[in-house]
Amino acid sequence: MGALVPQILAVLIHAVSRIVLNPFIKNIQTSWVKMGPSGVKASLDAGANDLGGTLMNESITRAAGTRHGQEMLPETMEQLIVQSGRKPRQRDTVYRNADPLQKSKSFGNKLLVN
Question: Running DSSP on this structure, what letter comes out for residue 70?
Answer without folding.
Answer: S
